[in-house]
Amino acid sequence: MHFTGRTWRPPYEANSVIIQATSGCTYRQCRFCNLYQNECFRMSPIAEFEEDLEEIKSYQPYARRIFWTGANPFAMSYDNLKRRALTVRDSLIKCQTMAMFASIRDIKDKEVWQLRKLRAMGINGLSIGVESGDDQTLALADKGYTSADILEQCGKLDEAGIEYYVVYMTGLAAKGGGYRNAMNSAALFSRLNPYFVSVDSLTLFPDTELYKMQQQGLFVPAGEKERIRELQIFINSLNIRTHLLANTVSNVIPVTAYLPYDRQKVINELQYVLDNVDETKLQEYRRNLKSLG
Ligand code: SF4
Hints:
- By secondary structure, the chain is of the alpha/beta class.
- 41% of the residues lie in helices and 17% in strands.
- It has a single domain (11-287), classed as TIM Barrel.
- The longest helix has 14 residues, at 46-59.
- Bound molecules: iron/sulfur cluster.
């Protein structure tokens, strides 16, 4: 298999077969991210992709779900995605789903009819790290799009029937911004149709722009209790039926819920922590986080 640079897949794709479609990220500007800083974006040559498929076929000929790695393989053009999707179908005859990371920016250059065709070829299950639906927070993180872009581009995925998952990041709005971020993000996400919402919490690593801003006094991180309250507000205000997965390593208190049914239960669980655990203990957990992988 051809794997170059950093290979990253979401925890919920643990059972998918992995193939490298791209490596690196086309953007590399998000201020909290250090994932692909020293790596140029690269599309795997089609010959390499085909060789890897042959290898997968030799041990998993009936694979049903395949995850294309790289920060955003969906940045590829419609024609390139189509060519690869058809190649996967030729090799893995039972494959029903080709999932991958995508950015809001990557959807912009695709028409709904193209998205529908990609969906028909098996491209489905896009993980989108939108992080926030609050314009001030999106600008602070330099995500390169606005809440209006999120609404428009996810609307195209809905029209095309492409399933997608969105990420929300607590703590990203800085100290004092959690309430605003949670309210505005929940309002926006409530107008989308994500199959689930995955929640991370900001962890500042020294090689990120946001860390430098913190050193210069330009960014003051939210405390852990503010983040827990932010998550409570987000959960309380999210008005769609969806799964919520706040159980990655960056969440000091891991919780999962099926909303709206588990809403009160999870809010109570978080309240118990707010009432009974010291801020310093919670901060100690994050200080000891060396990586998110
Ligand atoms: S968060 Fe994603 S889009 Fe932003 S720089 Fe990191 S890998 Fe690229």
